[in-house]
Specification:
The structure holds two protein chains of two kinds. Chain A is an alpha+beta fold. In chain A, about 30% of the residues lie in helices and about 15% in strands. Chain A contains eight helices and seven strands, in the order ββαβββαααββαααα. In chain A, the strands form two sheets. In chain A, strands 2-1-5-3-4 form a five-stranded mixed β-sheet, with helices on both faces. Chain A has a two-stranded antiparallel sheet with strand order 6-7. In chain B, the strands form six sheets. A five-stranded mixed β-sheet of chain B has the order 12-11-15-13-14. Chain B has a four-stranded mixed β-sheet with strand order 2-1-3-4, covered by helices on one side. Chain B has a four-stranded parallel β-sheet with strand order 9-8-7-10, with helices on both faces. Chain B folds into five domains: about 110 residues, Glutaredoxin, CATH 3.40.30; about 220 residues, Rossmann fold, CATH 3.40.50.11540; about 80 residues, Ubiquitin-like (UB roll) (Roll), CATH 3.10.20.600; about 90 residues, NADH-ubiquinone oxidoreductase 51kDa subunit, iron-sulphur binding domain (de novo design (two linked rop proteins)), CATH 1.20.1440.230; about 55 residues, Alpha-Beta Plaits (2-Layer Sandwich). In chain B, helix 7 packs across helix 14, helix 8 crosses helix 11 and helix 11 crosses helix 14. The longest helix of chain B is centred in the last third of the chain and has 18 residues. In chain B, strand 13 and strand 14 form a beta hairpin. Chain B is α/β, with parallel strands linked by helices. Classes of the chains: A alpha+beta, B alpha/beta. At the A-B interface, strand 4 and helix 2 of A face helix 18, helix 19 and helix 20 of B.
């Protein structure tokens, strides 16, 4: 039998099954928390830090990722305070400066209110969200992909660069990769990157109904859990 | 080898050892710690041994090879008892003279005595050395009493009596309560109250629990954990055994950094010997307490000093941290309740149990109790390991124990707490070494590193150094730490190379705040401290780099230029010969000149010049 707990997200009383994460519950209830590394059905590692929320513990607001935070009876979570918005904006800015060549990441930047990028652009083709690595390990148990290296040298590769035969060619890694969706105007050349911002009108919708999911096209772009969940149902 | 089956066996062993040792009338104590080993103390030990054999004194004179004494820069260090005679910089050639003059005739060799750089006087005994006098050496002083490879030495010095007291007459709750009352806080960096950690672990549900000793010390310039584990592994082991008994664990791990070969060796030896004596295993000292310890070697990542990354590494996974929404005292190693403490924290436990929580709490300040070992390094006269009571002002450590600046330069700042700590200016030197006070000031006690800097250090360059270190050591899992540190370093590099703008300082501050608040683990959460603290106290230096495009300390190469003061230059030609880039030209006895196009700003000429004619602008 499922046990339920009651918690407060942004002031709303919410009934949620025990063991689920705050992010999953929020998405289910239509509360919009931007996220990148979270994929429904896969384990959460808290890598992208976009889904940060304030968890009120003994009157103090602790910043933590909602994907790794499990719901608890009586807990109070705030997803859309000024502090969270500012921190989320800065993380999204770091991400889009690193990999502007992805519509998913450009959309996240728009959703988090990034209006200008204060760092020089780099044209990297991976932001190490780890979606592919976890999908490979957890859906097919193939382990054909893994993280190699530390810090600046961290990258995704076939372990020991020789596990090609482990790949079951399921294409999940490609489907889940945020870098495979190129910006609407086509790929940007190195040195010519820019902040797209074309979907800013979508932001209006999310701003009019604060902290609730308006089924904006942005979510589809960055493979938001709500759309991904829908796809799974179909 | 006798098994110590009961408490009485332990007491009997101690009495017998003390009786045996009454025959020895003289002891030569030589430091065999890593610091002294690097200054060839092994050769000194061998030479003294040979000399004692040759003079037929090996039965009356006891040669004890110990762990670190703390005064590493004077190594190899030798102390002769009775008399407390202190010799430093001993060489193997001195062995014959030491044995004949000091041991046989009781005379002192002036040449080997310590020369105090502050007063300029020769000092005869260890007890009179200012470096030691100003300290409160509770843990470090035990190092010279025992050979770290000999469990007998430790027992003779009163070892394992705290364990015997704990499992003989105290209930686990009482031990946890005692630690809580003592006010002991984690010595590894965070300063988390140890008593609270133990209470939570004690109360956590589960019949299988673990204790871990974190000896994966990696801060640049800090080595107190290495010294304690190398010099007195039994003390750490005893602390762990008491902790395991208190929280209900039956298995422990010592996670030692692989780059500390001597610490690995001594920890392993200690565990093996304790097993042989029955101090580890089943029914320890006649009680129903069962406990065993394994020594695991760290794989060489700084981030593995973080508790969850360390546990992942112990489990055989990649050493990466995981979110700590549920504490490790409830969900730790293999998802079991786990108490993880630092080497120094464990080492403090036996004396608290033996002398009582009140004794421990009598030292220190309101929020920080007991003593703390600091690794004092940098531009001061005396460097080494220093143990002080908590609450001692930084000024007393730097100017009292450290003896003040060298080369007549003015001290500018002290960097405390390693890469996660911050830089405090001289104006803040009256602050006590206290977890809460230093945190408020934008730095931290951390694991205890203390690097003193004088006016020849550029604070922007210092921040850049620590960021480079952290960028290398970040695991790269989460975005704020991986990209945030990278971008902070990018901005600081711009500033040191003259491309900085004032707007970048604001961006740097905002980014530092984001990294601090949103990173996954402790490494990222504290990574911005070097930047934030230098910005807080040395903002003028940042502004000089940006507005005036100069580096006041003459460190940042892109902003400085070397030239020769024609009035001071005597044309001796030293700099000309020393310059490997061929950038200096000039006739003999005529002032020389530096060709700025060829000059690589390495500074060799400046250190060679005896007239101080090389100018840096």
């Amino acid at each position: 039998m499922l046990h339920y707990v009651t918690l407060k997200i942004d002031g709303a009383d919410i009934h949620a099954p025990k063991g689920s994460s705050v992010l999953e519950v929020a998405i289910e209830y239509g509360i919009c928390i931007p996220h990148l590394c979270h994929v429904p059905g896969l384990s959460d590692i808290g890598a992208c830090r976009l889904c940060i929320v304030e968890n009120i513990v003994n009157g103090r607001a602790q910043v933590t990722t909602s994907c790794t935070l499990k719901v608890q009876e009586g807990m109070e979570v705030r997803t859309n305070t000024d502090r969270i918005k500012r921190l989320r904006h800065n993380i999204a800015e770091l991400l889009v400066a690193e990999a502007p060549n992805s519509r998913a990441i450009q959309d996240i930047a728009v959703r988090c209110g990034v209006k200008e990028v204060r760092y020089p652009f780099r044209n990297n083709n991976c932001v190490l969200c780890g979606r592919c690595v976890r999908a490979c390990a957890e859906i097919w148990h193939a382990n054909a992909l893994g993280f190699v290296g530390r810090g600046k040298d961290r990258h995704v590769e076939r372990p020991l660069n020789m596990r090609e035969e482990f790949c079951k060619q399921c294409d999940y890694c490609i489907q889940l990769c945020p870098m495979t969706i190129t910006p609407c105007d086509g790929p940007m050349k190195p040195g010519e990157e820019y902040l797209c911002g074309k979907c800013e009108s979508q932001l209006m919708i999310t701003e009019e109904v604060p902290d609730s999911c308006a089924w904006c096209r942005l979510g589809e772009g960055f493979n938001c859990g709500r759309y991904a969940g829908l796809k799974a149902v179909r | 080898m006798p098994m110590l089956a009961t408490k009485k066996d332990l007491e009997f062993m101690k009495e017998r050892l003390l009786l045996d040792r009454k025959k020895i009338d003289k002891t030569v104590i030589v430091c065999g710690g890593t610091g002294c080993k690097a200054s060839h103390s092994q050769a000194v030990i061998d030479a003294i041994n040979q000399e004692l054999l040759a003079q037929d004194m090996d039965t009356t004179v006891h040669l004890r090879i110990t762990g670190c004494h703390g005064f590493c820069e004077q190594g190899p260090i030798m102390v002769i008892e009775p008399g407390n005679i202190f010799y430093c910089h001993v060489t193997p050639e001195d062995a014959h003279e030491i044995v004949t003059t000091t041991l046989q005739n009781g005379e002192i060799i002036e040449r080997l005595l310590y020369n105090d750089p502050v007063s300029g006087k020769k000092i005869r005994t260890e007890a009179e050395i200012p470096f030691y006098i100003a300290q409160d050496r509770q843990l470090l002083s035990q190092n010279r009493e025992i050979n770290p490879c000999s469990l007998e030495d430790y027992v003779a010095a009163g070892g394992f009596s705290a364990l015997s007291k704990a499992i003989g007459s105290l209930a686990p709750q009482e031990i946890v309560h005692e630690i809580k009352v003592s006010g002991l806080r984690g010595r590894g960096g965070g300063g988390f109250p140890t008593g609270r950690k133990w209470t939570e672990c004690y109360e956590a549900a589960g019949d299988e629990k673990y204790v871990i000793c974190n000896a994966d010390e990696g801060d640049p310039g800090a080595y107190m954990d290495r010294c304690v584990l190398e010099g007195n592994p039994y003390l750490v082991l005893e602390g762990m055994m008491i902790g395991a008994y208190a929280v209900g664990a039956s298995k422990g791990y010592i996670y030692v950094r692989n780059e500390y070969p001597l610490a690995v060796k001594h920890a392993r030896l200690a565990v093996q010997q304790a097993r042989k004596y029955g101090l580890l295993g089943e029914d320890i000292l006649g009680s129903s307490f069962c406990f065993d310890v394994d020594v695991a070697r760290g794989g060489g990542a700084f981030v593995c000093g973080e508790s969850t990354a360390l546990m992942a590494s112990l489990e055989g996974k990649v050493g990466e941290p995981r979110p700590k929404d549920v504490h490790t005292v409830i969900d730790g190693l293999w998802h079991k309740p786990t108490t993880l403490n630092n080497v120094e924290t464990w080492a403090n436990v036996p004396s608290i149990i033996l002398n009582g929580a009140g004794w421990f709490a009598s030292k220190g300040t309101k929020g920080s109790k007991g003593t703390k070992i600091l690794a004092l390094t940098g531009r001061i006269k005396n460097t080494g390991l220093v143990e002080i009571a908590m609450g001692t002002p930084i000024r007393d450590v730097v100017f009292g124990i450290g003896g003040g600046a060298i080369d007549g330069k003015a001290i500018k700042a002290v960097q405390t707490g390693g890469p996660s700590g911050g830089c405090l200016p001289v104006a803040k030197f009256d602050l006590p070494v206290d977890f809460d006070v230093l945190y408020e000031a934008g730095s931290m006690v951390g694991s205890g590193g203390m690097v003193v800097m004088d006016e020849s250090s550029c604070m922007v360059d210092v921040a850049k150094y620590f960021l480079t270190f952290l960028q290398d050591e970040s695991c790269g899992l989460c975005v704020p730490c991986r990209l945030g540190i990278d971008r902070m370093l990018e901005i600081i590099t711009d500033i040191t190379e003259g491309r900085g703008t004032l707007a970048q300082i604001d961006l740097l501050e905002e980014l530092a705040d984001t990294v601090t608040q949103t990173s996954l683990c402790g490494l990222g959460k504290t990574a911005a401290n070097p930047v934030l603290s230098t910005l807080r106290y040395f903002r003028d230096e940042y502004e000089d780099h940006i507005i005036k495009k100069t580096c006041p300390a003459g460190v940042c190469k892109a902003l400085i230029e070397y030239s020769i003061d024609a009035e001071k230059c005597t044309g001796c030609g030293r700099c000309l010969r020393a310059c490997i880039h061929g950038a200096i030209s000039g006739e003999k006895k005529e002032p020389h000149v530096i060709n700025p196009e060829l000059c690589q700003k390495c500074g060799i000429c400046r250190s060679e010049c005896q007239q101080e004619a090389i100018l840096v602008k």
